[in-house]
Structure to design on (304 residues):
């Protein structure tokens, strides 16, 4: 039996307790009022194995916005629609050692977003999604994900209203600079689309099913595109902490300030966690502690 398949609920409960203790070191995101309502004690995990085996634990009924976790899948969506050559004409694949909403990084790079996992790259990607306006783009994208992964994601309108009410000045500045340097076709549509797709919401099971798309061969997605997305996740998915966790965990991962975290175990399955307290970089503290413990105990690292 492979690593993930060996898992038992007993193993899980030990690592969950460890993760929950670690969660106390983080803070719930408070820039968006609706996110600030999350209970810092919530923790949920769902694991989907290639074999069909699933394991769930904790507050699995919690619905949360994917926020930046969605960046992984908007990249996948564009790769499937337009191909790698076109997509990487719009955004790069270089890791960034600056915060995810850094304008300085974008200016230093002369308006060419360093990678699709930081905000400048994700806003550029949002500008290219198929559809006539932000609402249609979000609907088509969400529908594509649900059909492909068999999950039940939907747009959280209350979260979206909260995001719009407190629109990030950093994101506005990034979008303005992208438009000035001719990297956006429509500034307002790009920002609106970006905000809407970040408010696509679901449970940990939905996130694990999305992760499974990237972990296992399937008849729907190009293997090359899956490999590309996993590589970009490994090097850029946890912002400036990506290299540190590539060493400590050795799995492609993507986090979001909503508390979501997905880890890909290529050929085996996916691990999804929800824990709302974040570290200073913006990554979920308990989710990362849990995946790290799991990866080390089960020797899941892709580096053998």
């Amino acid at each position: 039996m492979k690593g993930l398949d060996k898992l038992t609920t007993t193993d899980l409960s030990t690592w969950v307790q460890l993760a929950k203790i670690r969660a106390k070191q983080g803070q719930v995101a408070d820039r968006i009022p609706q996110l600030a309502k999350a209970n810092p004690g919530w923790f949920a995990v769902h694991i989907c194995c290639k074999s069909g085996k699933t394991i769930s634990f904790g507050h699995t009924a919690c619905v949360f916005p994917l926020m930046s976790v969605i960046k992984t899948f908007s990249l996948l969506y564009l790769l499937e629609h337009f191909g790698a050559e076109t997509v990487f004409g719009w955004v790069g694949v270089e890791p960034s050692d600056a915060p995810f909403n850094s304008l300085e990084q974008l200016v230093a790079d002369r308006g060419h977003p360093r990678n699709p996992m930081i905000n400048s790259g994700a806003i550029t990607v949002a500008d290219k999604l198929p559809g006539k306006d932000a609402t249609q783009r979000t609907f088509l994208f969400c529908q594509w994900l649900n059909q492909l992964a068999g999950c039940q994601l939907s747009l959280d309108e209350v979260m979206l209203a909260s995001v719009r009410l407190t629109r990030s000045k950093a994101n506005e500045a990034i979008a303005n600079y992208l438009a000035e340097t001719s990297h956006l076709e429509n500034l307002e549509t790009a920002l609106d689309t970006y905000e809407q797709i970040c408010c696509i919401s679901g449970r940990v099971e939905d996130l694990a099913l999305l992760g499974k798309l990237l972990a296992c061969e399937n008849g729907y997605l190009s293997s090359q595109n899956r490999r590309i997305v996993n590589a970009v996740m490994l090097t850029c998915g946890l912002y400036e902490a990506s290299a540190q966790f590539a060493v400590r965990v050795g799995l492609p991962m993507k986090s979001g300030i909503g508390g979501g975290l997905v880890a890909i175990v290529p050929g085996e399955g996916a691990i999804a966690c929800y824990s709302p307290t974040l570290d200073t970089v913006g990554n979920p503290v308990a989710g990362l502690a849990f995946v790290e413990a799991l990866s080390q105990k089960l020797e899941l690292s892709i580096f053998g």
